[in-house]
Design a protein that fits this description.
- The protein contains 13 helices and 14 strands.
- With 362 residues, it is of the alpha/beta class.
- The strands form 2 sheets. It has an 8-stranded mixed β-sheet with strand order 3-4-2-1-5-6-7-8, with helices on both faces.
- The longest helix is centred in the last third of the chain and has 16 residues.
- It is globular.
Length: 362
């Protein structure tokens, strides 16, 4: 039995868990079913125990947002004989395992560079320090390490921006069942935004686009799904009729809202892939997104949705208005989106992990 120690800053039960944590859990739990022994070391969650087993994955929680990295290093040095291979998952700040692990193979998992995100989520001088120096310095330690990443955009970024040379795409899968056929949509023109309420996700751009759409299509309505520090500010700033701020909803409710929506709006400064794009597609909902890394991979332009020519709310609104006024085109995109989602599978991703792990241990 291959024993894997997997480092990630959050696990699937963390209140701020996002697409990266879904990815980790879906891959790790499937590897367990293939016979792997997996320990996930991650940060504390005050409401949960220090140790927990979820879907066969043994979770050890220790440390907080900033010191989980040092706690991980200490844990490895104390327990290194219990593991055969290390997976180091990078979300902004990496665990820097190549600095202190010299006698075991390492696989890094990289979702996306967060270059622009530093300017949305941190203040001066931290944003400039991280953007211009630290991220590049951190990733330099992974030269020669096999890196798995989720999209071609991220692969190109790692190779050309950070000079990494062993990069393999292990794409996002889909943890919901796509609909059998294109669904009947709401009788009211309905837009939707799904994502964490953080500045770099640009939910304010999606709502600004809806304001323009509403002026041209007065019957239009919008559902906004997601929780986070930006939510209350958005509610106060956009006190608009026909916008419903749902906050965080359970999985079934999210799928119901995606299924009835005509279009999902997806502005963002950057994504690794954009897991919610594929979830929307699985509900027969096309996506209009900014033409940024990640979304340029998950959205097939003019087939499963549209990428903007200019990354502005005005351009999103223009595309959405044209589609809402062209039901035949919108129906075709809906069908294409659904069919595309059926080609995506976590099992395919896990096979890539299995092959890479096998090669690293032989």
């Amino acid at each position: 039995m291959v024993r894997i120690l997997w480092f990630n800053w959050r696990d699937i039960k963390h209140p701020d868990a996002g697409g990266a944590e879904v990815y980790t859990h879906e891959v790790a739990s499937r590897l367990v079913k293939k016979g792997y022994d997996i320990t996930l070391f991650t940060a504390d969650i005050p409401s949960r125990t220090k140790q927990e087993v979820i879907d066969g994955v043994k979770i050890i929680r220790n440390g907080g947002k900033f010191n989980v990295y040092k706690k991980a290093e200490k844990f490895y040095k104390k327990n290194k004989d219990d593991f055969d291979i290390i997976i180091d998952e990078i979300n902004g700040r990496p665990f820097l395992t190549p600095k202190y692990i010299k006698d075991k193979p390492i696989i890094a998992v990289f979702h996306q560079s967060i270059k622009e995100e530093w300017f949305y989520e941190t203040s001066f001088p931290v944003n400039y320090l991280c953007y211009y120096y630290l991220e590049r310095k951190w990733l330099s330690f992974y030269k020669g390490v096999t890196v798995l990443t989720v999209s071609n955009s991220s692969k190109e970024d790692l190779i050309h921006s950070y000079n990494l040379d062993d990069v393999i795409i292990a794409p996002n899968g889909l943890n919901i069942n796509p609909l059998q056929s294109t669904p009947k949509k709401s009788n009211i023109p309905t837009l939707i935004f799904v994502g964490r309420m953080k500045k770099h996700k640009l939910p304010d751009h999606a709502i600004s686009a809806f304001k323009i759409i509403k002026n041209m299509i007065p019957t239009a309505q919008m559902n906004v799904i997601g929780d986070g520090y930006f939510l209350d500010k958005l509610r106060k700033r956009f006190n608009i009729s026909d916008i419903i701020f749902h906050g965080k909803v359970d999985g079934q409710r999210k799928l119901e809202l995606l299924r009835t929506a005509h279009i999902m709006l997806m502005p963002s400064v950057r994504e690794g892939w954009g897991l919610v794009v594929t979830e929307a597609n699985a509900m027969g909902t096309p996506v209009i997104g900014y033409n940024v890394p990640g979304l340029s991979d998950s959205i097939q332009h003019n087939k499963t949705g549209f990428l903007t020519m200019t990354n502005t709310p005005e351009n999103i609104a223009e595309i959405a208005i044209n589609l809402l006024n062209d039901p035949i085109k919108l129906q075709k995109l809906s069908h294409n989106a659904l069919e595309f989602s059926k080609t995506i599978s976590w099992d395919k991703t896990v096979e890539i992990y299995h092959k890479v792990i096998t090669l690293k241990l032989n």
